[in-house]
Amino acid sequence: HFAAAEDESEIKGSNTIYYGAPGVGKSFKIDQICNDNNSIRTIFHPDTQYSDFVGCLKPKMDGADVVYEFRAGPFTKAIEKAYTNENEHIYLVIEEINRAASAAVFGEVFQLLDRDFEGRSVYPIDLTDPDMLEYLLTNAPEAIENGQLRIPVNLSLFATMNSSDQAVMPMDTAFKRRWTFEYIRIDFSDCPNGMLSIPIRDNGEVKVSWADFARTINDALTDNSIPEDRLLGPWFLSNAELQTIESTQKALTGKLCLYLWDDVLRHGQSSIVFDLGIKNYGQLNTSFEPNNAIFNERIEQALLDAAVVQDNKSVEE
Q1: What is the spatial distance between Cα 270 and Cα 35, in angstroms, rounded to a whole number?
Q2: Which is it for the CA torsion 142, 146, 149, 155, positive or negative?
Q3: Longest distance between any two alpha carbons in the chain, whole Å
Q4: Are 6 and 172 in contact (CB under 8 A)?
Q5: How far is CA 123 from the centre of its chain?
Q6: Cβ count near 147 (within 10 Å)
Q7: pLDDT over 90 percentage in the chain
């Protein structure tokens, strides 16, 4: 999206939301651009409020006395960092932006998201909070012009969202219109290299790569019109989770199968992936052992076919 290093003339702020299926690497993509020195990071949750994001007056101890001072939130910290480092591109990173009521969290800052061609806020806001105004006048006086604030050209807002999460909150159209949405597609050309042992009927178990297993599940979901943002991304399971037999089984039953059962197939659609004999998640979890089928025959056959292909490749090599 941006080069790793930018000339001052090339800096152009933007508002970008990266979205896609769980595990496609949304945060990883941002990490290729941002680091501890050029970014301020936060994560939204259902209880996040305007005062958390922008800042508010809070008490602190001054010796034996209680005093109050303005505590800057991530947005104000990012504004300060951008105005005090005008030749550097600064990033405010918001993870899980749709897990909170985003428009309410942004509050009056919402208006600053409209940007001109250079990336500067088109419309300034009057800072009605005297404590925030005093904070910025003290720490980043360049940010205030005639008592008004704008987002500078060297501050970009990056966010991630995954609309398949049950806890997400809808974004209103006016808020979304002020962002560019960049879809991160599912691509298994770069993913963990672990092997999975999947229990199947009659044959005990079949060993397949994580990539082949995830693609098999995704194919079944896609054929049954499951939305793409609910599919498995290549990094849904990490290298650490696929490192040992014990960690792999724990990740499969306690994370992946739980996600499929509770989040993806919760409306009576479990037979798209799982065996008809599995009636609840508890039964699925305890059935994960050789000769106990947890997946339906279509999934089993696809996994067996994938295992044969892998064996043939091994022989050729």
Answers
A1: 41
A2: negative
A3: 77
A4: no
A5: 29
A6: 12
A7: 70
Structure-token match 């480092």, residue found? 85
| Rounded-to-integer distance, Cα 30 and Cα 37, Å | 14
Tokens standing for 97? 């932006």
Model pLDDT for residues 271-301, shown as the tens digit of each residue = 999 999 899 999 888 888 767 889 999 999 9
Whether 313 has a pLDDT exceeding 60, the answer reads no
Rounded distance between C-alpha atoms, residue 186 and residue 195, angstroms: 19
| Alpha carbon of residue 174 to chain centroid | 22
Reading the block at residue 277, the tokens are 């004999």
What's the whole-model pTM score?
A: 0.85
- Asked if 65 contacts 129 with a C-beta cutoff of 8 angstroms, the reply is no
Beta strand pairing status for 90-95 and 155-161?
parallel
Helix axes 130-139, 74-83, angle to 10 degrees: 30
Measure the CA–CA gap between 194 and 213, rounded to whole angstroms: 11
CA distance 96 to 315: 45
Distances (CA, A) of 253 to 95, 237, 287: 26, 12, 10
234 contact partners, CB below 8 Å, separation of at least 6 = 23, 24, 25, 186, 187, 188, 190, 191, 192, 211, 214
Per-residue pLDDT tens over the stretch 223-270: 999 988 899 999 999 999 999 989 998 999 999 999 999 989 988 899
Is residue 88 over pLDDT 90? yes
311 vs 300: CA distance, rounded Å: 16
The sheet with strand 125-126 has its strands ordered as 125-126, 148-149, 144-145
Which amino acid does the sequence have at 171?
Answer: M
